[in-house]
């Protein structure tokens, strides 16, 4: 295990974990009892010859397990490097990541103190209650290529990037605050199909006057949701379009205005990709959904606790 000085350095240096000390302290206070309760339940759930608590003690305490997971998610550090850093075996790090990652994934995205959104239904209910505009988009994450001659190998090949990938549905509000990231599908699945499979159309059937911005990949959802999903105007094709320049100019201005309103979701995706495990996933594909939800929850925590510096007052004013 790492020493007290090394642990303090990891916590205090935001470049290592991507999180402030306040967020890490909240994670320890929130997840520590949950991890201990699950561990005690596992120990008591099988026939025992010795009492609970007997035997060798953990070399890697909960705080170190949490810090190792945060470093791995932020920088994509291999298990071998983390094992050398924390002074334990590689299998201990692998087991620690497998224990902490699901706990982080189950937390959801924080939007207010005491309020977290864990499902797409929670997001739609939150947008309807607050009256804010939602923005949806899909992001692709490169994954390992399936083994040769394996059934369904080509379904991970993305039609856009022509690479093996999986895509996640991202939802932000009009301020760029992350509300949801999940519903992971194979790379060959179209964006609109992913949204339909996630139940977006059914969820919007029970709402009115809700506005969700989307790109051209979701054209067709507007008719199914009574216009609640707003997509850009379709590109005009045909001959002699240069003769109606005023119409083309109006059309391009409308598309530009729509894309300008969608910018916050692109910024949200960029913040997600700053975590190296989502820039390119080198682990097993079945770990990716938990990894995405864990990073989304951590990013939302950092966004909720981030305080902007107040602008300096003009000279001669004190209030």
TrEMBL record:
Pfam families, per database record: DDE_Tnp_4 (PF13359), HTH_Tnp_4 (PF13613)
Cofactor(s) required, per the database record: a divalent metal cation
All residue ranges annotated as the DDE Tnp4 domain in the record: 136-298
Protein name as annotated: Transposase family protein
Signal peptide: none
Keyword Metal-binding applies: yes
GO molecular function: metal ion binding
Highest taxon of the lineage: Bacteria
Organism of provenance: Kitasatospora sp. CMC57
InterPro entries recorded: HARBI1_dom, Transposase_HTH_dom
Keywords: Metal-binding
Domain Transposase Helix-turn-helix as annotated: residue spans: 59-109
């Amino acid at each position: 295990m790492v020493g007290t000085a090394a642990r303090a350095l990891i916590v205090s240096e935001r470049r290592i974990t991507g999180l402030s000390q306040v967020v890490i302290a909240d994670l320890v206070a929130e997840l520590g009892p949950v991890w201990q309760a699950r561990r005690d339940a596992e120990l008591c759930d099988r026939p025992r010859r010795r009492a609970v608590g007997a035997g060798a003690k953990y070399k890697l305490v909960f705080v170190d397990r949490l810090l190792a997971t945060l470093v791995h998610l932020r920088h994509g550090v291999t298990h071998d490097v983390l094992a050398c850093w924390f002074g334990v075996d590689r299998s201990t790090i692998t087991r620690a990541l497998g224990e902490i990652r699901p706990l982080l994934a189950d937390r959801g995205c924080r939007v207010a103190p005491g309020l977290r959104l864990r499902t797409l239904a929670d997001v739609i209910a939150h947008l309807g209650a607050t009256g804010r505009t939602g923005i949806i988009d899909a992001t692709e994450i490169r994954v390992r290529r399936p083994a040769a001659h394996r059934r369904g190998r080509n379904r991970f090949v993305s039609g856009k990037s022509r690479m093996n990938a999986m895509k996640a549905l991202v939802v932000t509000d009009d301020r760029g605050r992350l509300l949801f990231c999940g519903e992971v599908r194979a790379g060959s699945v179209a964006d609109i199909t992913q949204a339909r499979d996630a139940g977006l159309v059914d969820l919007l059937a029970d709402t009115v006057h809700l506005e969700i911005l989307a790109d051209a990949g979701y054209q067709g959802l507007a008719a199914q949701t009574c216009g609640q999903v707003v997509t850009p105007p379709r590109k005009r094709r045909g001959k002699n379009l240069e003769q109606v320049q005023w119409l083309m100019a109006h059309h391009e201005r409308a598309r530009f205005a729509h894309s300008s309103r969608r910018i916050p979701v692109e910024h949200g995706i960029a913040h997600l990709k700053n975590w190296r495990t989502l820039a390119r996933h080198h682990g097993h594909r079945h770990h990716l959904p938990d990894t995405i939800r864990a990073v989304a929850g951590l990013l939302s925590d950092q966004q909720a606790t981030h305080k902007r510096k107040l602008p300096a007052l003009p000279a001669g004013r004190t209030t």
